[in-house]
Amino acid sequence: MPFTEDTLQQTRAAYEEHARTCRQCHFDTMPCAVSKHLMRAYNNARREQARANSAAR
Questions:
Q1: Using an 8 Å Cβ cutoff, are 2 and 52 in contact?
Q2: What pLDDT sits at residue 3?
Q3: Least crowded by CB within 10 Å, which of 4, 37, 40, 54?
Q4: Neighbours of 15 (CB within 10 A)
Q5: Which of 46, 45, 47, 25 is nearest to 34 (CA)?
Q6: 11: how many CB neighbours lie within 10 A of its CB?
Q7: How far is Cα 40 from Cα 35, in angstroms, rounded to an integer?
Q8: pLDDT for 40
Q9: Which residues neighbour 42 within 8 Å (Cβ) at sequence distance 6 or greater?
């Protein structure tokens, strides 16, 4: 599945929204499992975007 700029922005927004609203992430020093999953999805989208940009050159 190719990642688009929209996908990158959506995954970032989902992570940031979760980090703001999750009680465990907000007060604890350890992120919760959902936070880790959302960060992983964002990182994957960011890497895929970088690969697509380098391949286009």
A1: yes
A2: 58
A3: 54
A4: 22
A5: 25
A6: 20
A7: 9
A8: 96
A9: 8, 11, 12, 14, 15
Between CA 32 and CA 47 the distance in angstroms is 23
Query: Which residue type is seen at 47?
Result: R
pLDDT for the residue numbered 10? 94
pLDDT score recorded for residue 54: 84
User: Are residues 34 and 22 in contact, defined by beta-carbon separation less than 8 angstroms?
Assistant: yes
Rounded to whole angstroms, how far apart are CA atoms 11 and 28?
22
Place of tokens 């465990």: 24
- Which tens digits make up the pLDDT trace of 3-50? 578 889 999 999 999 989 999 988 887 889 999 999 999 999 999 988
Residues with Cβ within 8 Å of 52's Cβ and at least 6 positions away in sequence, in order, are 2, 3
